[in-house]
Amino acid sequence: MPSTKRKVIVTGFGPFGSHSVNASSVAVRKLKEEGLKNDRVELMVTELPVEYDTVKDSVPQLWKQHEPLLVVHVGVSGIATELTLEQQAHNDGYDKMDVMGKCPQTQCCVEDRDKNCVLVSGIDMERVCTAVNTAGIKVKARVSHDPGRYLCDFSYFSSLHISDRNAAFIHVPPLDMPYTASQLAEGLRVAINKMIEQVADR
Fold first, then answer.
1. How far apart are CA 73 and CA 52, in angstroms?
2. CA geometry: angle 69, 72, 76, nearest 5 deg
3. Peptide bond just before 104 cis, omega within 30 deg
């Protein structure tokens, strides 16, 4: 019998640059292994390559195919030391080459939106941050308003363009700097469950 649970999709990224092992995908796979521990939803995870063209095609397909309650993109940041909850994303400034040596010709994510458009998630990241920081776990969180103008920002804007009320982005630090994969997964679980509360109660 088909599941009646709404789907929550969590994506990580493949390797790029100095991140031959991308902490985001490792943490997301660990989250899948350990589960969200939430009976209200069905968790799906997938890995996105660090390629603009593929992300531009894949993200809308995920939304269309699965009609998820929530999509959370997870990426690694070499400067992060905690879970970094991104509140917004940008449409322009994508001039950094992906792993295929490409970037968007217009340096924009969505062509039919204003170049300078900034989309803000309807999910209150301050509430999510408080939930993580008061959960009694090792991982701590902070809120950010700049996802970085690379594939992280690009994927986030792609999802916010589709549903700005049901999309989120979380940056994680590299593995063991300072958190293990299991600790990152635990932090993601707390954060995502708090997001689910917000989107499910609307």
1. 14
2. 175
3. no
Token digits for 186?
A: 């635990």
Which residue's structure tokens are 């660090």? Answer: 50
State the DSSP H helix or E strand holding residue 150, giving kind and residue range, or none if neither: none
Residue 105 DSSP code: T
Is position 86 annotated as part of the catalytic site? yes
201 vs 149: which has the higher pLDDT: 149
Catalytic residue among 82, 129, 152, 161: 152
* Residue 8's pLDDT band (cuts 50, 70, 90): very high
What's the start-to-end Cα distance of the chain, in Å? 27
Q: What pTM does this model have? A: 0.97
The top-level CATH class assigned to 6-200 is alpha beta
pLDDT tens by residue, 34-63: 999 999 999 999 999 999 999 999 999 999
Q: Which one of 86, 109, 129, 186 is the catalytic residue?
A: 86
Please tell me what DSSP assigns to residue 58. Answer: H
DSSP-derived secondary structure letter, 34: H
**Sign, CA torsion 126/15/31/138:** negative
